[in-house]
TrEMBL record:
Name of the protein this chain belongs to: Amidophosphoribosyltransferase
InterPro entries linked to this entry: GATase_2_dom (IPR017932), Ntn_hydrolases_N (IPR029055), PRTase-like (IPR029057), PRTase_dom (IPR000836), PurF (IPR005854)
Sequence similarity: In the C-terminal section; belongs to the purine/pyrimidine phosphoribosyltransferase family.
Listed cofactors: Mg(2+)
Keyword Protein biosynthesis: no
Catalyzed reactions: 5-phospho-beta-D-ribosylamine + L-glutamate + diphosphate = 5-phospho-alpha-D-ribose 1-diphosphate + L-glutamine + H2O
One of the GO BP terms on file: purine nucleobase biosynthetic process
Superkingdom of source: Eukaryota
GO molecular function: amidophosphoribosyltransferase activity; metal ion binding
Cofactor note: Binds 1 Mg(2+) ion per subunit.
Length: 517
């Protein structure tokens, strides 16, 4: 999972300021690397490196990023490695000069790499973002070669072909010299991408921004216009009927913001975006207080406390200078970081039975450390509740959970909740449950879609694969998941042989685990 942003300013304005501020607002989406590229008089100005946004960019670097148009990226690696060479954005010189930043994952990467080899394209990294960029360059060059495909139409057709070739979940921002800013998503709309505009200071012209989350737009005063719509499945190669484009010109510069795609009725979003990554703008008689795991679990904990009629308390102080533990690359770092990140307030735990509420339980690393901290602070009993259903299946669309062996809930059936609780050190563990007779994900799905509709979003469905094992794209089967497990072991030195020899079962696990109602 990564954060991407694109900015198109008025001709006499600098894009680097809003790009930098937007990346700060998206820092929670990736902490391994950051990069910004701008275009000034037909030349790219690029700076990227490993590290947090504030560490990568100082005054000297920002001053050198000239121009009124640019894109930026914060990286959390899900494909390739953590090498500085794989920091984004990437660029190629032909045709025109194209740069691209990407959030997501391609599930047909080996096939696409072979296609590029046949086109005599050299890949310098293992990143699927570089693959996307080269495919876009090939398709753009191919469409420019046709006399009937000129200007904006050639860009539209190039993206159309790219969408036809690539399977997976991805959202991209790109710059094409002489054309402007380009934003597009996969046909299922799995990865998020929003866009908005604001009036340029002292001008009647609008500036535009595209970002992974609307919170970045709001933070910088951009009016949210909606989601970049997911296109329908593109037609076969060279067929007519490209997705629609909405150009936004800036004076004589002819810079364009292209929103590609006629909104598909089946646009989907990753369920986990809403449960964990996006910023947040039974045992009841035995529980003394409800305490959230900050920050994203606060809303769920408040509602839980209200429903149970039990006091809600803040039990942890958070060090905001420590990164998010889920997106750290190694298990040892995650364990160490939890204690650096959170400090218990002893008076809230001493002598009490506490219900800790988190947005989700994935590997169990954070949960076990927090439970230990609660006990050390004096809690008599510690119960753990997850606002999300059990996470039992790999996510292959850009979130770092590619092997079931790493997922706590995948190792236990619904009849083994007590054993799961013991593994993380809890007295009991609870997952959210639907009313009797309703499918497990219905309530949570309905709540998310209702909120999305209220905000004018085009989302009509959700990718729930990490909960139910049902994948919305082709190429995702047991063999593909097995190859991911083997690649992960090779890249990260995973000593758990289960990660290589796990047999994936793609039908949903039985429902009915002990639930908090």
């Amino acid at each position: 999972m990564c954060g991407i942003v694109g900015v198109l300013c008025a001709d006499d304005s600098s894009a680097v300021g809003p790009l930098y501020e937007a990346l700060l607002a998206l820092q929670h989406r990736g902490q391994d690397a950051a990069g910004i590229i701008t275009e000034d008089a037909g030349r790219f100005c690029l700076h990227k490196d490993n590290g947090m946004v504030r560490d990568v960019f100082g005054p000297a670097q920002l001053t050198n990023l000239r121009g009124s148009i640019g894109i930026g990226h914060v990286r959390y690696p899900t494909a390739g490695s953590s090498s500085c060479a794989e920091a984004q954005p990437f660029y190629v010189n032909s045709p025109y000069g194209i740069t691209l930043a990407h959030n997501g994952n391609l599930v047909d990467l080996p096939t696409l790499k072979r296609d590029l080899e046949r086109e005599f394209r050299h890949l310098n990294t293992g990143s699927d973002s570089e693959v996307l960029l080269n495919l876009l360059a090939i398709e753009l060059f191919s469409n420019l070669s046709s006399p009937s495909h000129e200007g904006t139409r050639s860009v539209i057709l190039a993206v159309n072909e790219l969408l036809r070739r690539c399977s997976g979940g991805y959202a991209c921002v790109s710059m094409i010299i002489g054309y402007g800013l380009l934003a597009f998503r996969d046909p299922h709309g799995i990865r998020p991408l929003s866009y908005g505009r604001r009036l340029a200071e002292g001008s009647t012209e609008h500036e535009y921004m595209v970002a992974s989350e609307s919170g970045a737009l709001n933070a910088l005063g951009f009016e949210l216009l909606g989601d970049v719509r997911a296109p329908r499945r593109p037609p076969p190669r060279r067929s007519a009927g490209p997705p629609a484009a909405a150009p936004a010109r800036q004076g004589a510069s002819h810079a364009q913001l292209l929103r590609l795609g006629r909104g598909a009725a089946g646009a989907r979003a990753v369920f986990f975006e809403y449960v964990y990554f996006a910023r947040p703008d039974s045992a009841a008689h035995d529980i003394d207080v409800v305490i959230p795991v900050p920050d994203t679990a606060r809303t769920a904990a408040l509602e839980c406390a209200h429903a149970l009629d039990i006091p809600y308390r803040e039990g942890f102080m958070k060090n905001r200078y420590v990164g998010r533990t889920f997106i750290m690359p190694a298990q040892g770092l995650r364990k160490k970081s939890v204690r650096q990140k959170l400090s218990p307030i002893a008076s809230e735990f001493a002598g009490r039975n506490v219900l800790l509420v988190d947005d989700s339980i994935v590997r169990g690393t954070t949960s076990s450390q927090i439970i230990n901290m609660a006990r050390e602070a004096g809690a008599k009993r510690v119960y753990m509740a997850s606002a999300a259903p059990p996470v039992r299946y790999p996510n292959v669309y850009g979130i770092d959970m590619p092997t079931s062996a790493e997922l706590l809930a995948s190792r236990y059936s619904d009849e083994q909740m007590d054993e799961m609780a013991r593994e993380i050190g809890a007295d009991r563990i609870f997952y959210q449950a639907p009313p009797p007779g309703r499918p497990e994900l219905d309530d949570l799905r309905a709540s998310i879609l209702e909120e999305a509709a209220a905000q004018g979003s085009s989302i009509r469905g959700l990718d729930c694969s990490c909960f139910d094992g049902k994948y919305v794209t082709e190429h995702v089967g047991a063999a593909y998941l097995q190859s991911l497990a083997q690649e992960r072991k090779a890249n990260r030195g995973d000593s758990d042989t289960n990660a290589c020899h796990l047999l994936y079962k793609l039908d949903p696990a039985p429902a009915g685990a002990e639930r908090a109602r």
